[in-house]
Design goal:
- Chain B: It holds the Pfam family TctA.
- Chain B: This is DUF112 domain-containing protein.
- The complex is a heterodimer of chains A (321) and B (513).
- Chain A has two domains: 167 residues, Bordetella uptake gene, domain 1 (D-Maltodextrin-Binding Protein, domain 2), CATH 3.40.190; 109 residues, Periplasmic binding protein-like II (D-Maltodextrin-Binding Protein, domain 2, 3-Layer(aba) Sandwich).
- A six-stranded mixed β-sheet of chain A has the order 2-1-3-10-4-11. In chain A, strands 7-6-8-5-9 form a five-stranded mixed β-sheet, sandwiched between helices.
- Helices cover 43% and strands 19% of the residues of chain A.
- Chain A is an alpha/beta fold.
- By secondary structure, chain B is mainly alpha-helical.
- Chain B has one domain.
- In chain B, strands 1-2 form a two-stranded antiparallel ribbon.
- In chain B, strand 1 and strand 2 form a beta hairpin.
- The chains are: A alpha/beta (321), B mainly alpha (513).
- The interface between A and B is large, with 50 and 47 residues.
């Protein structure tokens, strides 16, 4: 209960400050940015999201004319970095590049993460995660229906779980179809890929890393509401009749109370990444599709998904731990 | 082979060689400085690699990895504060050697063992990347679990004077490793509601606190005595203490080869890392020795065993990366990013699609081995003088670096609190003669055992009988049982304080009579 209180106080103070110094805020926003910007990333250096964040930081710094320094604060799937962001001064000089799952999924899984879309300002999304259910290329089924039919014949199959979300998806399918699953825990994307390549598991949920292994791995269903550019033929899990699709997007968040002019400025600068050559090279090499959303759309998206995904987790009977 | 020659042609340019040198030097210096290490080097280097040519970028990162693995031996030997956790076993014999005035000898042997381990492991990578990686996939969680349990029996060899205290320290290591999100159902354990503990206690601050900060505080307590000793040990009065003699080489030959082998195997297996490699190699060498009781008093083989394995892990961890695209270490994971950035996807197709670049990377790794020898040899002449600096000047510098090192990886003050908490534990362990080495082994291997055990349960469908499908695992389970029985009989038959070897002979005598 400590955190929400502190956040409410911060938000109240920020609102007060904004009301009192509204004029000054606008003036400050006009000169923005006149010093280097710190960009938090809630994952380790060298990971997929970190790579995209650094490429985005380069685009932003070219656009804004000030250095954008990436600072990695790993921990709790981005929860540690996001918490720090809520405590930062809302002046546009501390921002965060992260997956929106820290707000629209994690609060429903972890008791100590209590973020809501209202705790941040949203300056736009730039990439999506191509999450999917994957298996070996030579497996005897080609889509999710085929797998379910096979799984009914083979109870006790091994399914690699990377995250609580990955576990929840299989639990829901198993509940509906009456499957018997062994959940093999794996740590990190590398080990998940290993479990598939090494045939220790027949199925796994991947966050998108499998795009690099087209010769060995196939996608049975994608876990987003839309079909994914890398596997246009793979149907969404929603199309299979399970309401479990959740879109993960990466983009820029800012502390609550950051002046709208600054958010607008960041949103416009991020838009340039869409056409930037280096950014395309970095994301293209890792098969991460670019789908830009501006600040207004991003806010609507996060509010909608927070509502809908919360419903999915509650329907699944998931209690935050 | 043809490709490799072309590769050397690509690498032997001033531009690329300069970046390899920069990487090795940066890594070496960071390795030497207690508290700083690979994590720091990589944090500095990642943004840089955006602007470099592919080969230069990869060579720079590989240079950092190789350099820091070798450099960490220097501070372990001179100050008893390993630059990285993986050099902790180096300090066990290296520091006593330094206090006996043989610092130069220990440093040189440490460097030679590092370079040999590194070089042979690189050659192994070049020759065997593809076939070995396919074999490594056979080592699934079930096999890994059996191997890890077997390796835990080495704790017996590393526990110092009392086996019981060694086991207690190991159990504490395992206990602290349980903090964080549990891996199967993701329920937080012992986090006390702290978000910072969700991913568990971080190794680096713990190792810095227990190994470096605690050591500095203990040394501060003995400052006068240490300074008096330092004055007396004029470095290398006798020439034979400054160089590695032929007789030393003969003693270290087998430990270096064994260390290289252990390091290479550990590197290829996913999820273990350099610390496990050097601990296992040190333990194995101690066990194989005629006089295991002399280890810890300044045996040169101990230094050779630990350092050769420590360095062999680095190139070997690239085997799964190159052959399958699976990272075997932190540096390998970072390298994936560097590869991808420059349009090369690690994995089997890499060899067909861009053989030139692969060959150039191999050539760069071999060059880095040679450069490491050169830079290490030059650097040691400078660093060896640290041994004569009064303790009161060293302590504040080391403490400062420790704080930076603990803070650097996650960028949070919380890591410094963890470092301080484990400093207290480290001092208690030193005063009460509990082994911090077994503590660290428990801490490093414990979670891997838990994860692979739980994976095994699921993969085996909770049936013992399914183990028959995993012959490698069965072999290691049998080996573990044999070693445990031998240890138990040895202990009970040979009195309380006998060493493994001594009690071993007692048993044989008992059988004969």
């Amino acid at each position: 209960m400590k955190h929400p209180d502190r956040r409410k106080v911060t938000a109240a103070l920020a609102a007060l400050a904004l009301a009192a110094f509204g004029q000054a805020g606008a003036a400050q926003a006009q000169g923005y940015p006149d010093k280097p910007i710190t960009m938090l990333v809630g994952y380790n250096a060298g990971g997929q999201t970190d790579l995209v964040a650094r490429a985005a930081a380069k685009v932003l710094s070219d656009e804004l004319g000030q250095p954008v320094n990436v600072v990695n604060k790993p921990g709790a799937g981005g929860g540690v970095a996001a918490r720090e962001l809520t405590q930062a001064t809302p002046d546009g000089y501390t921002i965060m590049f992260h997956a929106n799952s820290v707000v629209n999924q994690d609060p429903f899984l972890m008791k100590r993460i209590t973020f809501t879309p209202e705790d941040f300002e949203w300056a736009g999304f730039i990439t999506v995660y191509q999450a999917g259910l994957i298996t070996q290329k030579d497996a005897p089924y080609d889509d999710l229906d085929g797998f379910v039919a096979w799984a009914k014949e083979n109870p006790g199959f091994a399914y690699a779980t990377l995250s609580p979300g990955a576990r929840m998806i299989m639990q829901e399918i198993a509940k509906k179809e009456g499957l018997e699953v062994n959940y093999v825990p794996v740590k990190g994307g590398g080990e998940m890929i290993n479990a598939i390549l090494g045939k220790q598991s027949v199925l796994a949920m991947s966050g998108g890393l499998h795009a690099k292994y087209p010769d060995d791995i196939k996608t049975l269903a994608v876990l987003t509401t839309f079909r994914q550019p890398s596997w246009p033929e793979a149907k969404s899990i929603d199309e299979y009749g399970y309401t479990l699709a959740m879109d993960g997007r990466a983009g820029i968040m800012a502390p609550k109370g950051t002046p709208p002019e600054i958010i607008e400025r960041l949103s416009d600068a991020l838009a340039k990444a869409e056409t930037d050559e280096t950014f395309a090279k970095v994301t293209g090499a890792a098969d991460i599709p670019i789908m830009y959303m501006n600040a207004t759309d991003a806010k609507a998206e996060i509010e909608r998904t927070y509502r809908e995904y919360g419903e999915i987790f509650r329907n699944a009977g998931i209690e935050p731990q | 082979m043809q490709d490799l020659i072309h590769g050397f042609a690509d690498v032997l340019t001033v531009y690329t060689l300069a970046w390899i040198c920069a990487g090795v030097t940066l890594g070496y210096v960071l390795g030497v400085l207690p508290g700083l290490g690979k994590a720091t080097g990589v944090a500095v280097a990642i943004p840089l690699t955006f602007y470099l040519e592919p080969v230069a970028a990869i060579a720079l990162l590989i240079g950092i990895a190789k350099g820091s693995a070798a450099g960490s031996a220097v501070s372990a030997i001179l100050l008893n504060t390993p630059g990285e956790p993986s050099s902790a076993p180096t300090a066990l014999d290296g520091y006593p050697m330094a206090r006996q005035g043989k610092a130069q000898k220990a440093l040189k042997m440490g460097l030679y063992a590092s370079v040999i381990g590194d070089f042979l492991s690189t050659v192994l990578l070049i020759c065997l990347a593809a076939p070995m990686a396919r074999y490594a996939l056979l080592i699934g969680p079930v096999e890994l679990c059996a191997i890890l349990v077997f390796s835990m029996t080495f704790i017996g060899g590393l526990s110092g004077r009392s086996l019981l205290k060694g086991l207690i320290a190991g159990a504490f290591g395992v206990f602290f490793a349980t903090v964080g999100l549990e891996t199967e159902t993701f329920i937080p354990r012992l986090t006390f509601g702290l978000l910072d503990l969700d991913d568990g206690l971080p190794l680096v601050p713990i190792a810095i606190g227990m190994l470096a900060v605690a050591e500095m505080i203990v040394q501060a307590g003995n400052m006068r005595q240490l300074d008096r000793e330092t004055e007396q040990i004029v470095d290398g009065t006798r020439p034979e203490d400054r160089v590695v003699l032929w007789s030393d080489w003969k003693r270290c030959f087998a430990p270096i080869l064994r260390g290289t082998l252990i390091g290479s195997v550990v590197g290829i297996l996913p999820g273990l890392g350099a610390s496990v490699g050097s601990f296992l190699s040190y333990g194995a060498t101690r066990r194989a020795s005629d006089r295991p009781e002399e280890f810890g008093t300044g045996r040169i083989e101990g230094v050779a065993a630990a350092e050769s394995a420590d360095n062999a892990v680095v190139p070997a961890s690239f085997v799964p990366l190159f052959a399958l695209g699976i990272p075997g270490s932190v540096i390998a994971a970072i390298l994936i990013a560097a590869f991808v950035l420059h349009g090369l996807t690690p994995g089997p197709r890499m060899f067909q699609e861009q053989p030139e670049l692969v060959a150039a990377v191999y050539a760069a790794m071999l060059c880095a081995s040679g450069i490491l020898l050169f830079i290490g040899y030059t650097g040691q002449r400078i660093f060896a003088r640290v041994a004569t600096v009064p303790v009161r000047l060293i302590i504040p510098v080391v403490l400062f670096l420790c704080c930076i090192g603990a803070w650097m990886e996650t960028g949070s003050i919380f890591a410094i609190y963890i470092m301080l908490a484990f400093t207290v534990l480290g001092i208690l362990a030193k005063k009460l003669d509990f082994s911090f080495v077994t503590f660290l082994i428990g801490f490093v291997i414990g979670p891997s055992v838990e994860l692979s055990f739980r994976q095994s349960l699921q993969i085996l469908d909770h049936r013992w009988s399914n183990l028959t499908g995993h012959p490698i695992a069965l072999v290691f389970i049998a080996l573990t049982a044999v070693v445990l029985v031998a240890l138990a009989r040895g202990r009970s038959g040979g009195g309380a304080v006998g060493t493994v070897r001594d009690t071993g002979t007692t048993i044989t005598k008992g059988r004969i009579s």
